[in-house]
């Protein structure tokens, strides 16, 4: 594929991620931190997020299998998880976190379980979309700041 | 007053607001247990010209100060294992630490913000850290540390 076509495709992918509500302004803040000193910053942060949050997802899953449910513990895990999702601008996932915490406050176990399933779907879907996005970005390579050749 | 820190880069990033009258840069200690937040804060603050150090909980922050280190600014997360933000803030103030300590809370923990402020914070902001927040903190730092 021609380079300019790839640029356009990348720009379209990025726009869709925002338009469809997958990402919010915080992601833009991360993009603005990417520079020569940190050329793959955004991808590194997203990779770190998915690696670090696996443990929390697992903890929540285990906690949801207990009977009776410990809503304080569940809320605490979700609070931690939400801290990370907010910091990378993962809008839809963060919304599910908020919903989950509402159900915790209300002591609604079924609501928690249902929301958690939805959360995991959003989490996995975002991962897939971002992986495709970063793969294309890597193919294009670093954005050259030089002008067109004379 | 000499400011000593742990290992940190001395690379100058050129942010003109981030300079004391002496020409030295402002130093910041990030206290947060989330590795994603730690990484983001470090790069963000370095970009604004801070000398940045990161620790994972309140006890590590207190230990650093006990070992003789000091920072112009401490960004203190509220909820952390081992020692949380309010407790670490109380300890530091008890040690007569006069650094600017700014709490970082989540949006939905607003009701606990007052208790956190009462622990001895200079200010409290809602996460996530943004360019606007850092600019505002730099402004406060310039006022506080004008020699």
UniProtKB/TrEMBL annotation, chain A:
<dbReference type="GO" id="GO:0005829">
    <property type="term" value="C:cytosol"/>
</dbReference>
<dbReference type="GO" id="GO:0043424">
    <property type="term" value="F:protein histidine kinase binding"/>
</dbReference>
<keyword id="KW-0932">Cytokinin signaling pathway</keyword>
<feature type="modified residue" description="Phosphohistidine">
    <location>
        <position position="79"/>
    </location>
</feature>
<dbReference type="Pfam" id="PF01627">
    <property type="entry name" value="Hpt"/>
</dbReference>
<dbReference type="InterPro" id="IPR008207">
    <property type="entry name" value="Sig_transdc_His_kin_Hpt_dom"/>
</dbReference>
<dbReference type="InterPro" id="IPR036641">
    <property type="entry name" value="HPT_dom_sf"/>
</dbReference>
<feature type="domain" description="HPt">
    <location>
        <begin position="38"/>
        <end position="133"/>
    </location>
</feature>
<dbReference type="GO" id="GO:0000160">
    <property type="term" value="P:phosphorelay signal transduction system"/>
</dbReference>
<dbReference type="InterPro" id="IPR045871">
    <property type="entry name" value="AHP1-5/YPD1"/>
</dbReference>
<comment type="function">
    <text>Functions as a two-component phosphorelay mediators between cytokinin sensor histidine kinases and response regulators (B-type ARRs). Plays an important role in propagating cytokinin signal transduction.</text>
</comment>
<dbReference type="GO" id="GO:0009736">
    <property type="term" value="P:cytokinin-activated signaling pathway"/>
</dbReference>
<dbReference type="GO" id="GO:0005634">
    <property type="term" value="C:nucleus"/>
</dbReference>
<dbReference type="GO" id="GO:0009927">
    <property type="term" value="F:histidine phosphotransfer kinase activity"/>
</dbReference>
<keyword id="KW-0902">Two-component regulatory system</keyword>
<protein>
    <recommendedName>
        <fullName>Histidine-containing phosphotransfer protein</fullName>
    </recommendedName>
</protein>
<keyword id="KW-0597">Phosphoprotein</keyword>
UniProtKB/TrEMBL annotation, chain B:
<dbReference type="Pfam" id="PF00072">
    <property type="entry name" value="Response_reg"/>
</dbReference>
<dbReference type="InterPro" id="IPR001789">
    <property type="entry name" value="Sig_transdc_resp-reg_receiver"/>
</dbReference>
<dbReference type="InterPro" id="IPR052048">
    <property type="entry name" value="ST_Response_Regulator"/>
</dbReference>
<protein>
    <submittedName>
        <fullName>Two-component response regulator like</fullName>
    </submittedName>
</protein>
<feature type="modified residue" description="4-aspartylphosphate">
    <location>
        <position position="77"/>
    </location>
</feature>
<keyword id="KW-0597">Phosphoprotein</keyword>
<dbReference type="GO" id="GO:0000160">
    <property type="term" value="P:phosphorelay signal transduction system"/>
</dbReference>
<feature type="domain" description="Response regulatory">
    <location>
        <begin position="27"/>
        <end position="142"/>
    </location>
</feature>
<dbReference type="InterPro" id="IPR011006">
    <property type="entry name" value="CheY-like_superfamily"/>
</dbReference>
